[in-house]
Amino acid sequence: MRTVLCFGDSNTHGQIPGGTPLDRYPVHERWPGVMKAALGDGWHVVEEGLSGRTTVHSDPIEGAHKNGRTYLKPCLQSHAPVDLVILMLGTNDLKARFHMPPSEVAMGMGCLVHDIRELAPGPNGHDPEIMIVSPPPMLDDIKEWEAIFYGAQAKSRKLALEFEVMADSLEVHFFDAGTVCRCAPQDGFHIDGEAHRQLGEALAMEVLSIGWAELQSAPKSFKGR
């Protein structure tokens, strides 16, 4: 049994576009659930999504608990050993209150990768595999959220490149969610049920393509690198 931890924000939580954090798609319709079904037996998928979660910022309005970095380590220890950590964050870092350029949002993701490796919560105390997923770009029309995300639409279109550069530099896996799905027009930054299906199925293929048989036979010092 391999364990995959899906660590993200409202689009991992399954928030319905235009709704509140309490309005969620059913477990099997959210992308981690779709991915689990596509992976089949032998895979344990842990869904850890929180609406408003950032990479490394304590939100002065929504609360310090929105800081992904402070929750990641206890979360990893709770579910260890973990074979793969999928990180899909970044949208909330683009809120106007944080004044973050895309390059620094990517640096926040890099901090999470470093924290995972420092903890080494993989099998036998090794590093797990890590995958950075860039969220699909926001739509130009984000309804009543325009003031909160002022200027974020253009920044969101640059996240994929910055995340890919960060992933390459840290030698972790990367996937651009914008290549398979888009945000829903109801609010412009959440994905709908069809997008969850598209993303979950695509990520299942990415997970299976990692090459687990080769990792199993590799020397311990090289596993998860």
From TrEMBL:
Keywords: Hydrolase. The keyword Transit peptide does not apply. The keyword Cytoplasm does not apply. One of its GO terms (molecular function) is hydrolase activity, acting on ester bonds. It comes from the Bacteria. CDD domains: SGNH_arylesterase_like (cd01839). Residues 6-193 form the SGNH hydrolase-type esterase domain. It holds the Pfam family Lipase_GDSL_2. InterPro entries: SGNH_hydro (IPR013830), SGNH_hydro_sf (IPR036514). This is Hydrolase. It comes from Rhizobium lusitanum.
